[in-house]
């Protein structure tokens, strides 16, 4: 398996649209996605999927080094 860090700052910089998730990595049958939200997010669920949310508040620069390992 190829284990390499994902630079979140770099990935966030590749798009500006809100509410349009982007796949940044895949592992087995799972996709890891980034999305930019604007205003309020209405929480909901998808009964047939497992989901994890990593919330980066405010600006991507708040991610520190930006590396997710």
Structure, described:
It is built from one helix and four strands; from the N terminus they run βαβββ. It has a single domain (6-68), classed as Jelly Rolls. Helix content is 9%, strand content 22%. A hairpin with a 2-residue loop joins strand 2 (22-27) and strand 3 (30-34). The model has no long low-confidence stretch (mean pLDDT 76). The strands form two sheets. The chain has a two-stranded antiparallel ribbon. Strands 2-3 form a two-stranded antiparallel sheet. With 69 residues, it is mostly beta strands. The longest helix is centred in the N-terminal third of the chain and has 6 residues, at 8-13.
């Amino acid at each position: 398996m190829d284990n390499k860090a994902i630079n979140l700052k770099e990935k966030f910089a590749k798009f500006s649209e809100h509410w349009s998730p982007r796949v940044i990595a895949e592992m087995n049958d799972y996709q890891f996605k980034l999305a930019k939200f604007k205003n309020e997010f209405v929480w909901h669920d998808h009964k047939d999927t497992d989901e994890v949310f990593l919330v980066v508040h405010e600006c991507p620069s708040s991610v520190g080094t930006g590396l997710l390992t």
